[in-house]
Design brief:
- There is one protein chain.
- By secondary structure, this protein is α+β, with helices and mostly antiparallel strands.
- It has 4 domains: 58 residues, no CATH class; 66 residues, no CATH class; 60 residues, no CATH class; 44 residues, no CATH class.
- The relative contact order is 0.08.
- A 3-stranded antiparallel beta sheet has the order 1-3-2, with no helix packed on it. It has a two-stranded antiparallel sheet with strand order 4-7.
- The protein contains 4 helices and 9 strands.
Length: 252
């Protein structure tokens, strides 16, 4: 079909099939059946070739979207549950899921929606996938990192008490194409100053014979000591400047 500019004004005239002795059921048109102005002023439409091969209007059954969804929805639900269970079973004891198992359904029908048919065959496929990380490796790496940080910030003599605890706070996809993720972990650990037997003996010697208040002051100024508690079977009264006997100091 081509658009031509008419030499003069006019209206679009489309001969009816009845005028050509044809049944209205046929959609065939002869050449130049479309010949006249169209759409906008100064534009004409003209078909230079005949259109043949039209079909009679009729009612026929066709595949609808509800036909497909009605048959596949129960299948997709069942397959999704099975797929999630299968993937979950593959997660090892030292692994943790990055996100819940994701499943992507794919549905096809033959014939496709809109085509004429008295019956239709539907196929449902569900692909499930998940990403995991090695929780043991994360624990080991963050323990090393916080240990290095403690060594940098604390002086010699501080020792880790117990184990480092790591709590995952956020997971972000860093490189989806290569399956690389970023883990944001909150790490906690307790380091306490550890005194050697020689250090404890030196402190005991230092405060022996000192008034109680003075002994406490001396100990509080020693490295690694933040709180002092002195207990004795005797009654100590700092106001009398009673002195300590030879003392034994222990660390906790």
């Amino acid at each position: 079909m081509e658009m031509v500019l008419p030499p003069d004004g006019g209206r679009l005239s489309i001969p009816r099939s009845e005028d050509r002795g044809l049944s209205p059921q046929f959609a065939n048109i002869e050449a130049n059946d479309l010949n006249g102005l169209c759409c906008f002023t100064g534009i004409a439409m003209q078909n230079t070739q005949a259109f043949v091969g039209g079909a009679n209007a009729r009612d026929f059954p066709a595949v609808g979207s509800r036909d497909v969804s009605g048959a596949t929805n129960p299948l997709v639900t069942s397959l999704t549950r099975q797929g999630q269970a299968v993937v979950q079973a593959q997660v090892r004891t030292h692994e943790q899921l990055v996100h819940p198992v994701k499943c992507d359904p794919q549905v096809t029908s033959a014939p496709v929606v809109g085509e004429e048919a008295t019956q239709v065959t539907v196929t449902a496929r569900v692909t499930c996938h998940a990403e995991v990380y090695n929780a043991d490796e994360v624990q080991a790496k963050v323990s090393v990192l916080i240990g290095q940080e403690a060594t940098t910030r604390l002086s010699t003599g501080y020792v880790l008490q117990g184990e480092v605890t790591a709590n995952l706070s956020t997971i972000a996809t860093f490189d989806a194409q290569h399956g690389i993720i970023a883990l944001y972990v909150q790490v906690e650990g307790v380091w306490a100053y550890h005194m050697s037997a020689a250090q404890l003996h030196a402190l005991a010697t230092l405060v022996a014979g000192k008034p109680l208040g003075q002994a406490q002051t001396i100990l509080l100024h020693a490295q690694g000591i933040h709180q002092v508690s002195i207990a004795s079977t005797d009654w100590w009264d700092d106001t009398t400047h009673q002195t300590l006997p030879p003392t034994r100091i222990g660390s906790v």
